[in-house]
Amino acid sequence: MSAVAVASTSSEKDRASDVVLRVRDLRKLYGGEAVVDGFSFTIQRGECYALLGPNGAGKTTTLRCCLGLTDPDGGEVELLGQPVPQRAREARIRVGVVPQLDNLDPDFSVTENLVVYGRYFGLADAIIRERIPGLLEFASLGHKKDAWIGELSGGMKRRLTLARSLVNDPDLIFMDEPTTGLDPQARHLIWERLKQLLARGKTILLTTHFMDEAERLAHRLAVIDHGAKIAEGVPRELIRSHIEAHVVEVYGDGATEWAHGFSRAQVSRLEVSGETAFCYAADPAPILRDLEARPHLRYLHRPANLEDLFLKLTGREMRDEA
Amino acid sequence: MSSMQETPVRTTVATHGDAEGAARRDVLFAMPRPSRRFVPVWRRNYLVWRKYLFERVLSNIIEPLITLVAFGYGLGSLLPEVGGATYLQFLASGSICMSVMYSAKFESLWGAYSRMDTQKTWAAIMNTPSSIDDIVLGEVAWAGSKALVTGLAMLLVIWGLGVARSPLALLALPVLFLAALTFSAMALIVNSLARGYDTLSNYFVVVVTPMVFLSGVFFPLDQLTPWLRMVAQWLPLAAMVDLVRPLILGHTPQHLLRDLALLLAYGVGCYYVALIFTRKRLLK
Predict the structure, then answer these.
(1) Residue B150 domain boundaries
(2) How large is the ipTM?
(3) A224 near A65, Cβ under 8 Å?
(4) Span A299-314, average pLDDT
(5) Which chain A residues are within 8 Å of B120, Cβ to Cβ?
(6) CA-based nearest residue in chain B for residue A117
(7) B8 in a domain, yes or no?
(8) pLDDT tens digits for A192-213?
(9) Strand, coil or helix: A78
(10) What is the percent of chain B with per-residue pLDDT over 90, rounded to a whole number?
(11) Under a CB-based contact definition with an 8 Å cutoff, are residues A262 and A278 in contact?
(12) Is A192 exposed, middle or buried (0-12, 13-18, 19+ CB in 10 A)?
């Protein structure tokens, strides 16, 4: 690296190393309390990086710091080679944002929403109009181009918000819980579109608390809680390194007592949540054999997933809405 | 489950409190840094306005007509001359100021509050290269423009009815625009502090309406008791009326520079204060 590091400015260095976003030791206090507490991460070009955390973990605050919408109390943010918040405005020219809650303009039609939003980036109307057919096609909204926002379903609004975030042809797209509140069909359509964006070479920073979303889309992810990173890596590898390969979820009367009867060698980790016993094991055969003799216990045998990792790291207690 | 707790304990950093406060003060009180990007904010509001163009222009003309016919002709026929003019002329030249002010205030109270709070339009704009400084300037400029159209419509009514037909009245237009910008900036302070639409109504009842009665719109200021006259001297609407009335009736304003300076000072001061409180509200 040092042999080829002839670039002098940080933005040139970033182009060489393809770092799109660099966050170092970010801190943000509210009323003396740390909401983001020494968080660092780096996103490479073309990558989908997910921030995973319970409500109130500091995900949205982190995004706001990265966009320069709030000033951190410590640490550094470099977005597309620009220091943030000092040059956040310049950086945002090449960034798209899909906010947590739709804030489409209800006074305008689908097309007008795209035109008006493009103008905020200083784009000429002719350029925006040229891009609109492609954006509408991407959002599967070609047939709704003159519809009012009030006529759109939740899924359509989300897709339009996604299309709107692309009006400036951004390098990096921030997505704050892009599928919250959508039905399964609408979620799958959004996921499919995000994959298309990645295939086109876009970079995505995603926050979510849907584990399947992170597992499907993210190349790498960070689990954050109380504003700090508690794990980071490739989803499959993280699961492998933290969680036993097999999970048997057992429900029914006496499931808990039954589960406690196993030895540590058979069930390496046991978690009880309500009336469900989660048995984590490297080899599930002894548990499954025993369950066959107990028809009153229902069970589900599955491979360990991101949710298991998440719950192990952040605990099963309910979190207040932040 | 407690054995599973690997999460770090939430830390409270009392010693950083002062640094936190100082850094935040720097951001909030920074000098305004608006850019050309206020133009798309203005254009957004203009596009919405254009959709309802017919209704807007119609109400802009009908409302002053009603005021002038009801009060001017009705009440005016009972009254002697006021300050060297008929009461109709006196009222027409005062109520144009009132209408322009209302137009700017409404746009920067209910309109801006909807865009900021209800629709989250400002939040959407802040994700683009446009900043809060651009948004606030765009809103002020837009409210000023909209109110200017109101003023122009009223001037046409005044001319059309033959109430006053001095060419000097054209010079009232820039004054109306400046005053509208000022009233918009004042309203945006209230907007930035509002907890809901009720705050806006309360401001109207407690501040705006009394100001109308203390500013010489309906009757001359020398009818007021001395201490109220003292207060009235410093009201922006009174300065506006003091400038616009003579221009419409074909005279040179007596306190031209003082009145202009007062409006300008209110405008610039309120714009800066509105910006500080809007930043405080939105840059959390």
Answers:
(1) 35-282
(2) 0.87
(3) no
(4) 88
(5) 99, 101, 103
(6) B125
(7) no
(8) 999 999 999 999 999 988 888 8
(9) strand
(10) 69
(11) no
(12) exposed
B29 located within any domain? no
Whether B13 maps to a domain, the answer reads no
Q: Two tokens at B82?
A: 């006021």
Residues A149 and A153: their CA atoms lie apart, in Å, by 9
Structural domain contains residue B4: no
Minimum mean pLDDT range among A220-224, B51-55, B242-246: B51-55
More confident residue, A25 or B52: A25
Has residue B130 got a pLDDT over 90?
yes
| B179: CB partners within 8 A, 6+ apart | B97, B100, B101, B104, B236, B237, B239, B240, B243, B244, B263
CATH class, domain A10-234, is alpha beta
Cβ under 8 Å to B: A residues 262-321: 271-272, 312-317
What residues of B are in the A interface, CB distance below 8 Å? 1, 4-14, 16-17, 19-20, 23-24, 27, 36-37, 40-41, 43-44, 47-48, 51, 119-121, 123-131, 283-284
Number of structural domains found in chain B:
1
What mean pLDDT value characterizes chain A? 88
Predicted pLDDT at A2: 40
- Sorted by where each begins, the domain ranges of chain A are 10-234, 240-314
Q: Which residues of A63-99 are buried (b: 16+ CB within 10 A; e: fewer)?
A: bbbbbbbbbbbbbebbbbbbbbbeebbbbbbbbbbbb
